[in-house]
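Hello,

Following up on my earlier ticket. Below are the two sequence lines again, exactly as submitted.
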Amino acid sequence: MSKEHLSEPKTTERRSWVWIMLMVNIVFLVLLMTLGILALRVGNYLPEDTDILFVVGKSPSVEFGDGESNSWQSGKNVNIFQASYVNGEGVTTVVSQDGTSLIAPGTQSTYRFSMYNNGNMAVVYQTDLDFTFKIGGLAQAQYQFPLKVRLYTQNGDYLIGGESTWVNVSEAVVSAHVSQLGASSFETFTVELMWQFEGGNDELDTLYGDTAVDMGVSLTLGINTYAEEHIDPTAKGGTPIDGAESQEAGGTVRVLWLVLLLIFAAILVFYVAWLMHKRLRKW
Amino acid sequence: MKKNKFLKIACAMFALCLITTCVIGTTLAKYTTGGNAADSARIAKWGVTLDIEGDDMFHNEYTGTGSNVTVKSSDELKLVAPGTSGSATFSISGTPEVAVQIDIVFNGVDIVLPAGTYADYTTEDPDDTFTLNDAYYPVKFKLEQTNAAYAVGGDPVVMTVIENATLAQIKAFLSDYEGNDGYSGTQYAPNTNLGSSFTLSWEWAYGEYAGAVTNEDKADTYLANLMADEATFAETGKTGYVLETEYSISITVTQID
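Thanks for your patience. The regenerated structure is below:
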């Protein structure tokens, strides 16, 4: 009998072992990942003080509002503009004939709104303004209107314009601010609009005033905010809400779980490879 | 070779684990939310209009009773003469939603023959003279106002603001008047009906003069001769007379800050 005939059955058997070990390794990895996903999904619906496999439930809660009401209501206008204005000497210089809000040369409006993050994780948010200008009820795609705007935070950081500079509304529509807001924190914004009295173009101002009599001219200001959870739930930003209880950041273990998964998978893969290598050396 | 083969498989599985983990990580749902607020405002109404029809206060010919032309310019230029008259109308309208100030700037030049003694060209005696004790203004003006603010429930009220006046007196009146319908420099609250019209009329009286000057016919003749041939009829040392009249008016309505 030759050694070659004796070695053929052992080669086949060795290959079978390799495939079996590979399949077992893959199954272990899949089970590990599935277990992690299940832990996170279940953790979101459990009470905050429930710990399963070191998972903390996410409790998101972001609200938007102003000084008059705590939250913006869908489809309902807020009060940015006024029906009458008083100058610096206390004299009423602009009055609406029908009680509707209006603007005129020399008028200035201020509106403050806040974003409250009452949840247990940080969020990334974006704020921007948009304007719609209408003549006779028809929106104008392009227009030259002497209304200027600036937007700043409670800390005095200007998002649109500056302390001594204003931006025309037709140029401010594309401005967007992206920042982050920590858990149990809030941020307050102030938007100011001004139609300069001595804007340097009395003819245009008068034309708009006369057109308002004949056809009606209007301007709509829209404030848009969008927030999503931060990849780092412990990120800081904004002003902490007074009296808010300190909570454990939700979703933290997601990052930790990923790291543990990688480490365990690496250990498992190299251990199996080492076993297989050792066995083959024996053969 | 066999060692490398299994190490390669191990590395490939580790890479597969990394890739799978990243994919799993990105498919996990994340929290998002948004908020929107809006408000609209219309432009305040202005709609103030000024109508000044003053270019035809004087004419180059005038008709008397009926359609007979009694005065006609020889060179198509506008003129005035005893027995002629005319008028011009200025109006403001609108109810702006902003506070405004109305300013009226008026200027005028009167025909005048200063006080003094002049040759009497109404007699054949070249030595006859006549004396004017005061300056003689042959053309007299009257300013009337119709204010829509008084027309609530009724017809507009026409008020004579000033009459039998010179253009200089009209100017002073418009600059200083501060009555209820006030003029230059008067401010109005938002939504005030500014509707108001002014009529400035004039007359060169024929045969009758309301002032204290006598010898008005002699003065009218003297002025007319000067206009016809100043070189011939002007007297040495007699200056200060004016043979042409003119006026200008500017009305401005401005928003107040």
